[in-house]
Amino acid sequence: MPEKTMRDAINEALHQEMAVDDTVFVIGEDVAGGNGSDGTVGCAGGVFGVTAGLYEKFGPLRCIDTPISESAIVGAAAGAALVGMRPVAEIMFSDFIGVCMDQIVNQMAKFRYMFGGKTRCPAVIRFACGAGFSAAAQHSQTMYQMMTAVPGLKVVIPSNAYDAKGLLLSAIRDDDPVLFFEPKALYQEACEVPDEPYTIPFGEAAMPREGDDVTVVAFGQMVGRAMAAIDGLEAQGISCDLVDPRTTSPLDSETILESVAATGRLVVVDESPPRCGLTADIAAMVSEKAFRSLQAPVKQVCAPHTPVPFSPDLEAEYVPSIDKIQAAIRETLQ
Amino acid sequence: MGLDKDGLLRAYRQMKTIREFEERTFTEIMNGQIAGFTHLYTGQEANAVGVCEHLSGNDTIISTHRGHGHCIARGADVKGMMAELWGAASGLCKGKGGSMHIADVDNGILGANGIVAGGPPISVGAALAAKIRGRDNVSVSFSGDGSVNQGTCFEAMNLAVVLKVPAIFVIENNYYSEHTSINYAVGCDDLKARTEGFGFPVFVADGADFFDVYRAAGEAIGHARAGNGPAGIFCEQGRFQGHFVGDPQGYRGEGELDNLRGERDCLQHFRARVGEYGDVSAEELDTIDAEVLSLIDEAVAEARTAPRPTAADLDSDVYINYAQGGA
Ligand SMILES: Cc1ncc(C[n+]2csc(CCOP(=O)(O)OP(=O)(O)O)c2C)c(N)n1
Ligand SMILES: [Mg+2]
């Protein structure tokens, strides 16, 4: 099977779905490649190159550059979706949710409920997210943990190229609004990705490692780190289940609970700040539903309650490290 | 003109300092010395200096992702800025902010800003404070041609008129927002008319010409200081570098960059024309050039060896006071 980067896998999913469904279109800042000095386009395909080639293939009506106007971009996607299109909007960095929060949280998330279940809003909004580039406080946040708290939104956070392709195809075909978060640190990471289209259902976790001693749940960029942490502990005779939920809303709590029932120990890893976040959410769910299986307190490994720092030295402290994940796993075994 | 000899020399020094700061930053990024996303102001120096030479005391500026020039022009410590780019604990923001968040609020710099058009509303607040306190200060927001299409920019402009506050909206047109040309992104043919439609005057300047920016800024700031409400300044000048360091710039027209560096360099223009405004010799400017270069060398040398922040610094500065129960 060919190896592809997460960037290419997402790009391929967009190409494939646009080819078979002419209600799908892409809209965002520089997604066509900017409209340069002479009006020619197609030099970039988004700042991360994820939408490269779509303009050339599908033309200006289906790959649309916009001014810097995030509220209007999200609103336009929501509106087009309400009347039957399947837009895929790009908001360059998830931090810019700050600019267009009303359209996401008050508008598209709530249409269906407010309108008595009589409508659908099959829009997808894609975001690059996460730390690792010294991009500082306004270009490094995750935001998916906040959006997970909003009823009406589905929230996807892939951890590898294979999942990204299958989840994006599901997202576009899904009839509800979907926020699709792409850890920017993973764009260049490659794995085997089939050429043909395939879907991965929402609410079904992956289990990239299986073991007996501890259940580790990790999201997005942290899945790879958790995997490295777990592999590093193997020599010490410690084996872990690793659960990658892939979508945080809906959440596959069943897989997590089954694993905890077997291991009796839980470590939850995320690179977001800790308060009211995913790790706390899962810790609470497990302590409520599987209290009697637990043999040790649940450990949360996440960022501190601070903005993301610029300095590379501080950022390395901010994002949960392999060491910190291993320490948490060991602690649950004491 | 209103600038005496000292003023002319200071303006030149400021522009030259920005130029060398940016050129050196470019080199150090290419050398792998500086992390993160860095947007250089090279070429646009006259905009920042032409405006900021009118500011003093409690006047404030707020900047953008391309903020080094604005901060230097408003008087930020160059060594502290360089240390900040290196992520050093001695940086102006202790290494926590980096290029996109350089700030020195006590000295009138309300921060570079990573969010396009994040600044204009904040500058309306600073202008409102001046009005409430009965001071004649102005509050300047710099933002790019890309920022004018953001709702926050529209809201800020309208609010400034409604409240009649001394907010100065400096729109720096360098023709692009990332890869996208202003001709595409601004839907109307006449951005000046669109902006004036909010209800304040807009003064246009050639951003390659310090003297022209200084003139336009004088008119705009004079209008606001006199209590007439907000004003706009449009500066037209391309950037000499890519959107960020590493941008392949495929969107540029043929010969565009050479033409900018060759024909529209504000430093060359200043040298060629300063004789019309005062008795300044080429030697005096050469001396400034040399002084600036050694300042930048020192700044880099100090930044390189400056102490880095440690894990203990991570969670300070989030709040001033954060009492936790049971702590
Ligand atoms: C709200 C928001 N949207 C998008 C971006 C990404 N971005 C950073 S700079 C930039 C272009 C800004 O263009 P302009 O305002 O003309 O300033 P210039 O870069 O030309 O100085 C964009 C789109 C951002 N930082 N913030
Ligand atoms: Mg611009």
TrEMBL record, chain A:
<keyword id="KW-0560">Oxidoreductase</keyword>
<dbReference type="InterPro" id="IPR005475">
    <property type="entry name" value="Transketolase-like_Pyr-bd"/>
</dbReference>
<dbReference type="InterPro" id="IPR033248">
    <property type="entry name" value="Transketolase_C"/>
</dbReference>
<feature type="domain" description="Transketolase-like pyrimidine-binding">
    <location>
        <begin position="4"/>
        <end position="189"/>
    </location>
</feature>
<keyword id="KW-0786">Thiamine pyrophosphate</keyword>
<dbReference type="Pfam" id="PF02780">
    <property type="entry name" value="Transketolase_C"/>
</dbReference>
<dbReference type="InterPro" id="IPR009014">
    <property type="entry name" value="Transketo_C/PFOR_II"/>
</dbReference>
<protein>
    <recommendedName>
        <fullName>2-oxoisovalerate dehydrogenase subunit beta</fullName>
    </recommendedName>
</protein>
<dbReference type="Pfam" id="PF02779">
    <property type="entry name" value="Transket_pyr"/>
</dbReference>
<dbReference type="GO" id="GO:0016491">
    <property type="term" value="F:oxidoreductase activity"/>
</dbReference>
<dbReference type="InterPro" id="IPR029061">
    <property type="entry name" value="THDP-binding"/>
</dbReference>
<comment type="function">
    <text>The branched-chain alpha-keto dehydrogenase complex catalyzes the overall conversion of alpha-keto acids to acyl-CoA and CO(2). It contains multiple copies of three enzymatic components: branched-chain alpha-keto acid decarboxylase (E1), lipoamide acyltransferase (E2) and lipoamide dehydrogenase (E3).</text>
</comment>
TrEMBL record, chain B:
<dbReference type="InterPro" id="IPR050642">
    <property type="entry name" value="PDH_E1_Alpha_Subunit"/>
</dbReference>
<dbReference type="Pfam" id="PF00676">
    <property type="entry name" value="E1_dh"/>
</dbReference>
<dbReference type="InterPro" id="IPR029061">
    <property type="entry name" value="THDP-binding"/>
</dbReference>
<dbReference type="GO" id="GO:0004739">
    <property type="term" value="F:pyruvate dehydrogenase (acetyl-transferring) activity"/>
</dbReference>
<feature type="domain" description="Dehydrogenase E1 component">
    <location>
        <begin position="13"/>
        <end position="310"/>
    </location>
</feature>
<keyword id="KW-0786">Thiamine pyrophosphate</keyword>
<dbReference type="InterPro" id="IPR001017">
    <property type="entry name" value="DH_E1"/>
</dbReference>
<protein>
    <submittedName>
        <fullName>Thiamine pyrophosphate-dependent dehydrogenase E1 component subunit alpha</fullName>
    </submittedName>
</protein>
<dbReference type="GO" id="GO:0006086">
    <property type="term" value="P:pyruvate decarboxylation to acetyl-CoA"/>
</dbReference>
<keyword id="KW-0560">Oxidoreductase</keyword>
